[in-house]
Amino acid sequence: MTRIDGETLRAWRRARGWDVPAMARQLRRASSEPIAAHEGLVRMIRAWEHGKHEISERYELLYRKAAGVSDTEPEGSEDTGTPSETPLALTRPSALSWATPVCDAVLSPTDAARRAAAAVTVFQTRLGDLRRAVGRAQDASLASDYAQLADTLPGLIGEAELAHLRGTAPPGLLELLSDIYAITGWTLIKADSPAAAWTAAQRGLRLAEEADDVLRSAAATRCLSEVHMRARNFGEASRTAFLAATYLDAAPSRDRPAVLCLRGGALLSASAAAARRGDSREAQTSLKAAATCADQLNQDRADLGTVFGPTNVAIHRVAVAVELGDAREAIRRAPEVDLDQMPAHLTERRARFLIDVARGHAQVRDDDAAIGALTEAETIAPDELRNHRLTREVIRDLLTRERRSSGLRALADRCHALA
Questions:
Q1: Is 222 among the domain residues?
Q2: Long-range contacts of 185-188 (CB under 8 A, 24+ apart)
């Protein structure tokens, strides 16, 4: 029997919604003979999943039995049902895309590390600089500043990979590297490159788990959910979003505001995925659960790249209605969104909301209102508006009813919707 690698073992565990201690308990239940004590199993599982030790045949069989995976099931099979193993087409953005350098760094990390090696001598002495650079990249992501992300992320990825090659891990480094890949994952979702985004998000999750960071593990798992959503794997997106929420059950009580933010964000992802597959009941149930988190949080905030609070829940009420094809409900809900309550730097959320408002108006053929919403979004976050696939979809719909005086064609040209 060929030994299964650590990533596959982790995928089997995560697909069942188990953390490492739960996996240890399942292994003990699955065994008819004495095996290692619970704490020893926890250490062994972490070592196997992080590639520090190869799993023995005996324990692999127990893993398969506990996880319900057949002996003949191939590695990476969709039948495992794991969010991390669903195949995605490995495609890059177009050669002219702003995201090409980022995508290349993710898909060719050794080259990125080689470029970073020329500029880095003692990595630990630059940890403070790296932390500040990651903070700037996070701000750029929340503002949809694609030019800055394209300029800075490849270098950050190179430093992350170089640190791994050197085996250096000062306090806080693993968390920073996880943040770099999480930001990169979200960036590549926006660039319509789900396979590269999946690669980045998986690396972010692996680093977060290696650091035993529950909050970052949840944030990276939610990013994986959004990757599946972009790849139109909506059932998998829902399941992975709920899995992100389960990570937070083990979070320390002192992190309650961040836990509410991350759990609420995961529930909003689950709601959006359910809406896109036409499941109104699950979409509304998840949205209601997210609203409960928002009420408890009672503010709009951004933790680990996750924007959440009462305003984002209101934004998603509009988005879910649009996805379910209820344009009139979306238009009715739109005035409930008070964008002034959201921190000023979160321009991505503002523009994304206005794109959904435009979609709702377009569905009821109120083209002037749709164009007005798109134009307002462009003033708030031009990169978000001009590069989003939904912008192109709604503009192409509007073009079928274009009036020469509308100014729509100029907007379509700026959004690359005429190709």
A1: no
A2: 185/220, 185/223, 185/224, 185/227, 186/141, 186/223, 186/226, 186/305, 187/99, 187/102, 187/141, 187/146, 187/149, 187/153, 188/99, 188/102, 188/103, 188/106
What is the rounded distance in angstroms from the CA atom of residue 399 to the CA atom of residue 410? 11
Q: What pLDDT does residue 404 have?
A: 64
Question: Which range is most confident: 96-110, 159-173, 248-262?
Answer: 248-262
- pLDDT for 1 equals 45
For residue 183, give its domain range. Answer: 97-212
- What band does 380 get if pLDDT is binned at 50, 70 and 90? very high
Residue 311 and residue 289 share a domain: yes
Contact status, residue 317 vs residue 309, Cβ threshold 8 Å: no
State whether 334 and 360 are in the same domain.
no
Taking residues 6-20, what's their average pLDDT?
A: 73
Same domain, 60 and 35: yes
Q: Reduce the DSSP state of residue 413 to 3 states and report it.
A: helix
Single-letter amino acid code for the residue at 245: A
CA angle at 394 for the pair 390 and 397, rounded to the nearest 5° = 145
227 part of a folded domain: no
Domain count, the chain: 4
Segment 290-302 shows an average pLDDT of 93
Number of residues that this document lists for the chain: 419
Query: Within 13 Å of residue 40, how many CA atoms lie on the same side as its CB?
Result: 5
| More confident of the two residues 13 and 60 | 60
